[in-house]
Write a structure and sequence with these properties.
The chain has 9 helices and no strands. The chain has helices at residues 3-13, 25-33, 39-82, 90-132, 137-144, 153-169, 179-190, 194-209, 228-239. Helix 2 packs parallel to helix 4 and helix 4 packs antiparallel against helix 6 (153-169). It is elongated. It comes from Arabidopsis thaliana x Arabidopsis arenosa.
Length: 245
């Protein structure tokens, strides 16, 4: 799939309030296709995009840290209150799990936001160098690697922590499902509902953009080592109802 189509689809699959925060890839591509701007002007346009990415990413990251602590506190209180009597607090448990799924989904979307904007910058710089015969991409990407929006370690760690928390506090036995086909069917059915659809789309996009291929280069993101079945099972786990004994 052409990157222009991919980023357009990803913007459509993102949260509405996020859609104007992505790289203006089509506009920049059209600008290069017409008389390419001078390097200083083009760099200024890219710097404005990076400022936009950084401001949005940092704001979301700060909100996630606060929400992370709030959810931890709520889970602790719920576990203390429920004890072994899950049935009495079934509705409250269900609401808690929904909040965690939504939180996890938003964090996955932010990691994907970083990935797709970085990839877009690398691709648009390649087009600019090809059009002008210059060598802007390499030094500019070195600058990008140190930008806040590119540093996803903290958010990625929170994603893994909440997947572990859900396994421990709200376990779902996928092994009882009737094979991969049944898991895929559940995922497909749930994919049209709320943020879950956005999250699945983001996971698929990250997997596609970060796969090893003949076009892999020094400017590519490292491959995302997750199989199709693992992705489906993860998605099923996140969308499944809470099992009550």
């Amino acid at each position: 799939m052409k990157f222009g189509k991919r980023i357009k689809e990803q913007i459509q699959e993102s949260l509405p309030e996020w859609r104007d925060k992505f790289l203006r890839y089509k506009e920049l591509k059209n600008l290069i296709s017409s008389p390419a701007p001078a390097e200083s002007i083009f760099v200024g346009l890219l710097n404005a995009e990076i400022d936009k990415f950084n401001a949005f990413f940092v704001e979301q990251e700060e909100d996630f840290i606060i929400h992370h602590k709030e959810l931890q506190y709520r889970i602790q209180r719920l576990v203390e209150k429920c004890g072994h009597n899950d049935e009495m607090f079934r509705e409250e448990i269900s609401e808690m799990r929904k909040d965690i799924v939504n939180f996890h989904g938003e964090m996955v979307l932010l990691v994907n936001y970083s990935n797709i904007n970085y990839t877009g910058l690398a691709k648009i710089l390649k087009k600019y160098d090809k059009r002008t015969g210059g060598g802007l991409r390499s030094p500019f990407i070195q600058k990008v690697l140190h930008q806040p929006f590119f540093k996803t370690d903290l958010v990625s760690r929170l994603v893994r922590e909440w997947e572990t928390t859900m396994d421990a506090v709200f376990p779902v036995t996928v092994a009882e499902a009737e094979g991969y086909e049944r898991c895929a069917a559940v995922t497909s059915a749930a994919a049209g509902v709320g943020i879950f659809r956005n999250t699945v789309a983001a996971l698929l996009t990250m997997k596609e953009m970060r796969r090893g291929s003949s076009t892999y280069s020094a400017f590519s993101l490292p491959p995302l080592n997750i199989s199709d079945s693992d992705l489906v099972l993860r998605s099923v786990h996140l969308s499944s109802p809470i099992p009550i004994p």
